[in-house]
């Protein structure tokens, strides 16, 4: 299934008609540069174009009051003075004779997107709209927003398609207070937002934007606010919040639909956000959401005011929705102290609502909530001073071109096992290099003349080489001895290939401690038995009471341990081995493959035992980029597993900074 793109140039036909410094950044070019970038990169043609429609009164009344709607309806006939007067009653927004029409199209675009996804016409999609929506409230416009596009779309999805649970992820740099107010007492809509806050000093300067606004009444726990109390937040800060707050909660919530308030003022170069996260980060944020809700992801444009980073970020998002592998998450560092403080505060505030956070630490000793008041007083005192408008020009390298290999998934299967469609059967066509053959014979083959084991191993090596050359994206190999095959491909990768190799081993089994201490390989093994090998920086045995068969425990160890380390390690190749009788079920296996594909540009090599034929279909489906089936709402992990993962995290966070979930005192 494809990716919808909804855009109509009519939404460029309104603009600011008078002088207002706060509003001058919201210009029609925001939409034109975004759409043109998608056209120039050829991505618009790869999408399924869906036309906009005009929202009806009933659509708008799902969220807004009649009196507000009646008021906005009069604006097309107003004179300039009347428009200015009408605008005065709201903050940081402007009206225009054509903005009501465009606001109805922005809603209609969002509803068309929901229809296309919910009817299965497409898998996911993006709506390029203006005016944005997430600040507008039941009876008020705010922050360039007239109607709340995403809030209306979420209510529409529930009403029209009986959607039980909607996750709204708001990665715009402003707090979508309009969305929070709309759903704060509603447990069927989980609203997650991070936003520049600076201890309530940044617009819209609301006390209720802080981490302790968790929702009200039966909606308690379903509103998650992550305040950024400093600017210059980077990719590592964003990813650590996904790994340690959003994703665990989202998997526990198990939404039927994911809506994204896709604002790109959180990217580097934006005058509002003043953050440092690079446009490619949106490929990873999007990818990490695509295995939720069976892949039903609807992204709707909100903010984004630097026309260069906006266009690049939109392209990164759409390219990932199209299924292209994400770029390498290069040089991730440690989250900054302020981000870790916020992370700790949010997890602490929510531990009573989510089992995945129940073990979260207390509020940091430097309880940042009191800073809010003190800082406010200081600001008042010193406010007399100049507001430094130091907007030095930010520069960043353009995201790397993401070339999709000609072959998406190659498979090496024993005769008699049919090749899954869209996969390509692979065998090392050229006679294997005699050197390789000898090495295989002496190191890996018990009886040296086992010809088809030799053929399989040399195919395996050939596959790894083609992945390194980006001729093949991912591979699946059925082997007789998984351990031996793993050793073989890791040895080959460690010597012949230039890249680091992440080895993920699912299930018991002796994993030769071939993790060279030089960091060429990072081995993470999930099993139910204590590993006899010593744990180290590059060999991490994760012992789970019921191994991979306990879904919550396994998912939490993937999200909270494996992904943070994997992203920080940034391998060129991922080897994923399913040991015999690992106990892992297909849907969890598919989640694991889907999530790991965010690494190594999707170069993941899966090894399974020959008799694992039943798993070939599901594995191939995930390797081809299809969304994994939803796991359903997750219950609590076993206490032993929580304990194991937490102690492992504490031991390793000195090495792997993305494992941190608290600000060191
Ligand atoms: N009044 C001093 C400056 C105010 N700047 C904030 C303007 C609203 C931004 C809203 C937005 O970006 C929507 S995503
Ligand atoms: Zn914004």
Short description:
The protein is α/β, with parallel strands linked by helices and 665 residues long. It has 20 helices and 16 strands.
Description:
The protein is of the alpha/beta class and 665 residues long. The protein folds into two domains: 3-324, Arginase, Chain A (3-Layer(aba) Sandwich); 407-631, 3-Layer(aba) Sandwich (Arginase, Chain A), CATH 3.40.800.20. It is 37% helix and 13% strand. The chain contains 20 helices and 16 strands. It has an eight-stranded parallel sheet, sandwiched between helices. An eight-stranded parallel sheet has the order 10-9-11-16-15-12-13-14, with helices on both faces. Strand 4, helix 8 (177-183) and strand 5 form a beta-alpha-beta unit. Helix 9 (235-253) runs parallel beside helix 10 and helix 15 (451-468) crosses helix 16 (482-496). The protein is globular, with a radius of gyration of 26 Å. The mean pLDDT is 93. Residues 22, 92, 132, 135, 143-144, 172, 174, 203, 263, 265, 272, 302-303 line the site of 7-[(3-aminopropyl)amino]-1-sulfanylheptan-2-one (Q7Y).
Secondary-structure blueprint:
Blueprint lengths: L2 E4 L22 H12 L2 H4 L1 E2 L7 H5 L4 H8 L6 H9 L10 H20 L5 E4 L21 H13 L4 E5 L6 H7 L5 E8 L26 E6 L6 H19 L3 E6 L18 H9 L7 E5 L5 H15 L15 H14 L17 H15 L24 E6 L11 E2 L8 H11 L6 H18 L3 E8 L2 H15 L4 E6 L14 E7 L11 E5 L7 H19 L3 E6 L7 H11 L7 E6 L6 H8 L15 H14 L13
Parallel strand pairs: 1-2, 1-3, 3-8, 4-5, 4-7, 5-6, 7-8, 9-10, 9-11, 11-16, 12-13, 12-15, 13-14, 15-16
The structure holds 7-[(3-aminopropyl)amino]-1-sulfanylheptan-2-one and zinc ion.
The site of 7-[(3-aminopropyl)amino]-1-sulfanylheptan-2-one (Q7Y) has 14 residues, from loops.
